[in-house]
Specification:
This protein is an alpha/beta fold. It contains 13 helices and eight strands. The protein folds into two domains: 141 residues, Rossmann fold (3-Layer(aba) Sandwich); 151 residues, Rossmann fold (3-Layer(aba) Sandwich). Strand 7, helix 12 and strand 8 form a beta-alpha-beta unit.
């Protein structure tokens, strides 16, 4: 969730007078810390935590139960703080306040008041920091698509770097759908979005869709999707496959149980509907994914899109 809420978190902690430090990612010679049967993002969480344990006073690893009023997150989010404690051998304090939006927006606010109290802030100081963080987050979301297409992926979450006022024109418009870490963590995606932009693809993500638009796409499904991330992914895929873009890329994590189920569900549903109405590329990412392999797949995908556009322009 760093790749969605960092602008909020950073301003909140800085508003309380704390310096915010992020990990440097997995450098070329640094090994990923493995946990038995862990998914890739959990492996990276542990690796980043180990990297930071000697450099900070606290690690912020909230116990995320729900970021939606009706649906829940993958259970691994709930256990993440405990995994981090084990991995860091309890050498650093972990801020693990529970966030569960099923109890209403007030509970979200109360969670951050508790965090502020733990860090020695007064209730009023925490309130002020929370309001500043909300404003920062709101501003960052408004220009998010411009930021994605005008900045290198590595600078997207550098809050102090402004979005360029102008950008390049892209001949193709492609939706990239998946968990935020699959889209924006360069250790996972190998810079996939930069590769796509280099091939003339304007990036569109599910961030431009409202909750109502996603709910509309999943409302007629035979079975409810209880995972908030799963609902967002399925709803976004069906929305963009119906038009508005030239193609859709679905990014999945190897060893992610939710992604495996969603992928099978989507394939079967598309088969019933007679196949996707637009070119669809499914990429499964893991720690062995190579940048060269992704480039080859994207180049072939671009060729399919261009061939389809060319065929549609032929008048018989």
């Amino acid at each position: 969730m760093f790749y969605r809420y960092f602008p909020f978190w950073k301003i909140f902690f800085e508003g309380l007078g704390w310096s915010v430090k992020t990990s440097e990612g997995v450098r070329q010679k640094e090994k990923i810390v493995y946990f038995e049967d862990s998914c890739l993002p959990m492996k990276l969480l542990v690796t980043h935590a180990v990297q930071l344990r000697e450099k900070v006073d606290y690690l912020f690893v909230p116990r995320l139960v729900s970021i939606h009023r009706s649906f829940i997150m993958c259970p691994k989010f709930r256990g993440a703080p405990d995994i981090v404690r084990l991995a860091t051998e309890r050498k650093v304090s972990v801020i693990d306040e529970t966030i569960d939006l099923r109890k209403g927006g007030v509970s979200f606010f109360q969670s951050f008041l508790k965090i502020g109290k733990k860090l020695g802030a007064s209730k009023q100081e925490s309130k002020n920091a929370f309001r500043e963080a909300e404003d920062s987050f709101s501003r960052s979301r408004k220009g998010w698509m411009d930021r994605i297409n005008r900045l290198p992926t590595g600078q997207l979450f550098e809050v102090n770097i402004p979005t360029p006022s102008e950008g390049r024109n892209f001949p193709l418009r492609v939706a990239f759908i998946g968990h935020p870490y699959n889209l924006f963590d360069v250790d996972i995606s190998k810079g996939l979005l930069s590769l796509a932009k280099g091939l003339g693809m304007e990036i569109v993500t599910s961030d431009i869709l409202s909750e109502k638009e996603i709910d509309r796409e999943v409302s007629n499904l035979s079975k409810e999707i209880y995972w908030s991330s799963g609902r967002e992914i399925v709803g976004s895929l069906f929305h963009f496959l119906s038009g508005g873009v030239d193609g859709v890329v679905f990014l999945t994590s190897f060893k992610c149980g939710i992604d495996a189920l969603l992928q099978e569900f989507i394939k079967r549903r598309l088969k019933v509907l007679g196949g996707p109405s637009l070119p669809l590329l499914i990429l499964s990412l893991d720690e062995h994914t190579s940048r060269e392999g992704l480039m080859t797949r994207l180049e072939a995908f671009r060729d399919v899109i261009e061939e389809r556009r060319s065929d549609s322009q032929i008048v018989v």
